[in-house]
Write a structure and sequence with these properties.
The complex is a heterotetramer, with 2 copies of chain A (about 300 residues) and 2 copies of chain C (about 260 residues). Chain A is built from 8 helices and 16 strands. The longest helix of chain A has 15 residues. With about 300 residues, chain A is an alpha/beta fold. Chain A has a single domain, classed as TIM Barrel (Alpha-Beta Barrel). Chain A is globular. With about 260 residues, chain C is of the alpha/beta class. Chain C has 2 domains: about 90 residues, Translation factors (Elongation Factor Tu (Ef-tu), domain 3, Beta Barrel); about 140 residues, Rossmann fold. Chain C is about 20% helix and about 30% strand. Chain C has 5 helices and 15 strands. Chain C has a 7-stranded antiparallel sheet. A 6-stranded mixed sheet of chain C has the order 10-9-8-11-12-15, with helices on both faces. Chain C has a two-stranded antiparallel sheet with strand order 13-14. In chain C, α3 links the parallel β9 and β10. Chain C starts with a strand and ends in a 10-residue tail after the last strand. Classes of the chains: A alpha/beta (about 300), C alpha/beta (about 260). Chains in contact: A-B, A-D, B-C, C-D. At the A-B interface, β11, β13, α5 and α6 of A face β11, β13, α5 and α6 of B. Bound molecules: flavin-adenine dinucleotide (2 copies), flavin mononucleotide (2 copies) and FE2/S2 (inorganic) cluster (2 copies). Chains C, D: Its cofactor is [2Fe-2S] cluster; FAD.
Chain lengths: ~300, ~300, ~260, ~260
Amino acid sequence: MDMQVAFAGLDLKNPIMTASGTFGYGTEFMPYGKLEELGAIVVKGISLAPRKGNPQPRITETACGMLNAIGLQNIGVEAFLRDKLPQLPWRTTPVIVNLYAQAVEEFAELTDRLATAKGVAGLEVNISCPNVREGGVQFGQDPVLAARVTEAVKKRAGALPVMVKLSPNVTDVTVMARAVADGGADCISCINTLTGMAVDIHSRRPCLANVVGGLSGPAIKPVALRMVHQVVRAVDVPVVGLGGISSAEDVLEFLLVGAHAVQLGTANFVRPDTAFKLVDEVRRLAEEMGISAWEDFRGTLELP
Amino acid sequence: MDMQVAFAGLDLKNPIMTASGTFGYGTEFMPYGKLEELGAIVVKGISLAPRKGNPQPRITETACGMLNAIGLQNIGVEAFLRDKLPQLPWRTTPVIVNLYAQAVEEFAELTDRLATAKGVAGLEVNISCPNVREGGVQFGQDPVLAARVTEAVKKRAGALPVMVKLSPNVTDVTVMARAVADGGADCISCINTLTGMAVDIHSRRPCLANVVGGLSGPAIKPVALRMVHQVVRAVDVPVVGLGGISSAEDVLEFLLVGAHAVQLGTANFVRPDTAFKLVDEVRRLAEEMGISAWEDFRGTLELP
Amino acid sequence: MPEPQCLELRVTSLESPDNDLFYHLSLESPQWQWRPGQFAMLRPTSWRHEPLWARPFSISDQDTNGLHFFFQRMGSGTDLLSQLRPGDVVTVWGPLGNGFTISHTTPTMILAGGMGLAPFMGLIRHHPIPQNLELFFGHRQPLANYPFSEIEDRILAWQVREQGPEDLEKLFRAIEVKIKGYSIDGNLLACGPLPFLRRIQKLALDHNANTQLSLENRMACGVGACLGCTVPTKSGELVQACTQGPVFKADAVDLSGEL
Amino acid sequence: MPEPQCLELRVTSLESPDNDLFYHLSLESPQWQWRPGQFAMLRPTSWRHEPLWARPFSISDQDTNGLHFFFQRMGSGTDLLSQLRPGDVVTVWGPLGNGFTISHTTPTMILAGGMGLAPFMGLIRHHPIPQNLELFFGHRQPLANYPFSEIEDRILAWQVREQGPEDLEKLFRAIEVKIKGYSIDGNLLACGPLPFLRRIQKLALDHNANTQLSLENRMACGVGACLGCTVPTKSGELVQACTQGPVFKADAVDLSGEL
Ligand SMILES: Cc1cc2nc3c(=O)[nH]c(=O)nc-3n(C[C@H](O)[C@H](O)[C@H](O)COP(=O)(O)OP(=O)(O)OC[C@H]3O[C@@H](n4cnc5c(N)ncnc54)[C@H](O)[C@@H]3O)c2cc1C
Ligand SMILES: Cc1cc2nc3c(=O)[nH]c(=O)nc-3n(C[C@H](O)[C@H](O)[C@H](O)COP(=O)(O)OP(=O)(O)OC[C@H]3O[C@@H](n4cnc5c(N)ncnc54)[C@H](O)[C@@H]3O)c2cc1C
Ligand SMILES: Cc1cc2nc3c(=O)[nH]c(=O)nc-3n(C[C@H](O)[C@H](O)[C@H](O)COP(=O)(O)O)c2cc1C
Ligand SMILES: Cc1cc2nc3c(=O)[nH]c(=O)nc-3n(C[C@H](O)[C@H](O)[C@H](O)COP(=O)(O)O)c2cc1C
Ligand code: FES
Ligand code: FES
């Protein structure tokens, strides 16, 4: 079958992208497969200046999932563009940069830097960061702020497609989706992690130095699928689904509810060649099911 | 050790309660243990009139969890008081009735009926029901409505302690907690289920006839623990923690973050004697850890 | 009926005629009082939180060698069950449900589709008047995978393997011929997949035959608490298949929808 | 260094000297080029989503019989690993990390705490000049559970069983006596629990001894992507133990905090 999918100015060989923060800078996975066979690579959240992230411990395992509080450790945009991007097969596979900033102006500045960089195919705006300056409210939980960030990035992004990544920690995800769509997002990715916590009854301390962290992995798939389903129906921009995907069946579930593509997150940790194998497995499953093009399958969920 | 715990006018032999909708009317579990050994029994959500609930399929398994869309099937308050309550050991174990209604006046009417019934030790107000008349907004997601329901129930409840059960499907659970505490709740239980969805790629249909359902089980424990941690710090009323509890360690985790008691939900399905065994296991673990009274342990989480 | 129990029982043996799809699982015998059509929930203690639910299986028989189940590998749960080894421990609660109402002196027609054969093994083995039993069996997999030859030795038994859409029609025609006789003074006991039961239900109602259908609804708890296994009755109520069933009179339940 | 690989390997044997806590796991040999101190991530294919992460283990040795690991049962993951049987399939990625920098001609002091012995087995077995190796081994469990007698046959080896708080002090005093000599022209290689490594680090810095410490941080991916296994360097950076380590020079990392 024809695995290609094109949307929001992105042209993908197949609908399998990697999720930000779970695939490093891409280079870490080179021993385990061919990066150019992936639909797209979304790299670790990048900020203007390098960030050290949170103290240890930063990760803990939960039932069918994990919590992380890495705190967006990254080498900063300059080092990324200089040392990492040139190693990626950006000529053949879209490289999408996940943006993290603490204020609207900073998002704008970061966008300026990336919009002129060779080899960047798109931006993913991470508006569910735990610490932001503006009013102490998370960008990802306030539709007005979310729209402002989106506008600021979109204005400076030039030809680069802008994808905005939604947080699931909200009462109504469609409100956020409409806000960022109105703000000019070319595309929406959802979901980021659910805020969670784990404690150790013996030490009487939280398992993460940061106390709370982001829950990801198979445990959250039902929540992710529900939100993608809602967002697809609420806005006209294409949606990229993620949250708990680990198998070809999972990928097709997200496409069935209407996602144009998916991102593979925590599953990359569970086995480093998961993303590469998934491309083949999705092809095989789709062919078995008699799907010849994604348009014939996407969003064909029958509702009662 | 002394397993007793008293709060909000409830006097429990131990902090293990059963969660509404997961322990039937209590009678279903009589073959598997002694109901009088439990801390309290919270029965299936009861409405004024009997309810048939949603069409099949109503349940589906997910990674370390399950989705349900039972739709609050129940025999109605009269049949409950006549046929079920007398079978329960209400003289020795508090029986708490979980209330479900579609409007504030209905909640009040239901409270009237229960406040005069012999054998009811407390009320748990379920404000995260999927279908309510008022403005189409869920009671559990709107602090103003939540407070109004709480006030209405509290006003008619007489001496009965009123526990209000919070939904996790909100941006900020502390806003809801404060609203119901201000509305007069004697106690807060959290969390109810996270809204989720599952689909079948072969039939191209949702796995639940209701399309979406409530996610419960070990998968959601990190979210539940985080919310209990937040609510305990946000309000002065005692908190009952639930969500994904299945072991003695889990129980102690919720007490460590500050819950006065816990409810056991989905774990009752996984093995019908779980609640009974848990009482012993919690006692054993607490003794091993040198805990002699819950006051010495509750809320002793050390934050960095 | 005796109260059900929740026990941890050891696997005494697990055999597969085809080494692939079909399994005969034996557990140490809990010495239960049970009747055909009753079932138990099985959950190996090695399953932590995944899969979450136990799985329901008809009690096929109980003897001094143990408690016996027949199952077919369908998905994740039965897949894991097929990997059990002697000595492994399984949490088991049962006997659950109502079971079939049986009269040994009444001519009884058994209608089984696939693993719907499982609940009838003990009945066939221990029936005091085997001439009163007759089996109609529809199946997809090779006959050797089912304990059919043992049955054939004891009672009159017909079987059709479904390889095309026409094959099952043959079975239903044969049943229809016989059902007339049974509708006068006999009983029908049926177990199998939902489409199979729907056909039997129609035949039963058309011929006004005294028929009991055993359902295989999806179950989480098996004890009547989760309300996940409900089935609509003809009067429009929703009742739990695990406690009010799994056996229902053919004229009592509405099988038209999904279950 | 050769590129790591992700493979599915069969278990060839699993042995436990005490039938309880200690296990020697052998997998079919992937014929890896590896060096002591490198590790692999192990995840049986039977684990579905729980436990979610693979578990890291030092490559203990590789020979024609296979790839060898020693592990101790600690929690859920090692518990499940201890139930593996020959023929079971394990997803394995490795060799990972940097490994120890070894000079065969340099007198080398090995400092191992408990299962910190594991990475040194191959080194000890295959070292061309065994007289250049000396081992100090602290352990809690009975000596018979560790492959100590084999080691003793080849190199000079000291051991102390920690049964009270004083016992380990004896070991550290003995190490301190020897470290002076090694600090002139030798190497120290250490692996063990964090408190053990902290003590060694202090000794090493006090005596300015050329020391390499192998860390056992919690890991999810093993490939440098999750940033869960980071350790602070003396310069205040956070680096991945899985790719920049697990072996670090004693003066390069700050072990004062939690890891
Ligand atoms: C009272 C009762 C008695 C039963 N007796 C037997 C028996 O003796 N032998 C036997 O082999 N099976 C029996 N079953 C069916 C058996 O319980 C299911 O095959 C089993 O639970 C499937 O589990 P799984 O994890 O392998 O499949 P899953 O991975 O859960 O599902 C695989 C496929 O089967 C479907 N499925 C799962 N459970 C059911 C169900 N209960 N009804 C219909 N479709 C389902 C799923 O939708 C999916 O398509 C019985 C069921 C009931 C309710
Ligand atoms: C590079 C490296 C090499 C290792 N080599 C070996 C080896 O050769 N043999 C061996 O037996 N072990 C080795 N370990 C440790 C081993 O990985 C852990 O013991 C194992 O992951 C525990 O898994 P579990 O699921 O059994 O324990 P869990 O259930 O995850 O945890 C049980 C207890 O151990 C603690 N724990 C879990 N993982 C770690 C960890 N990585 N560091 C510190 N504490 C932890 C938990 O906090 C908990 O208290 C190595 C670790 C690393 C990073
Ligand atoms: C360790 C880790 C680090 C992450 N870092 C980022 C990040 O930098 N930027 C971002 O937008 N999302 C980040 N995420 C969220 C993932 O991209 C993804 O949205 C989430 O994990 C849900 O998908 P999954 O269940 O497939 O992992 C991170 C997730 C994990 C587990
Ligand atoms: C099948 C099912 C039915 C439920 N019915 C109710 C109900 O009637 N009223 C209510 O307040 N909560 C109901 N709940 C929610 C539980 O009481 C509980 O809040 C939730 O399942 C989380 O806890 P757990 O993870 O331990 O199951 C139901 C949950 C399940 C799984
Ligand atoms: S299986 Fe739970 S009510 Fe029947
Ligand atoms: S284990 Fe993931 S970065 Fe080291």
